[in-house]
Amino acid sequence: MGTNDRQHQFEQIVAQLRADYPSLGEQRRWPRHVVVTAAVLGGILWGFLSVAMVAWGAAGVLLTCSVVALTAAALGADAYRHRGR
Question: Could you tell me the residue range of the domain that residue 36 belongs to?
Answer without folding.
Answer: 2-82
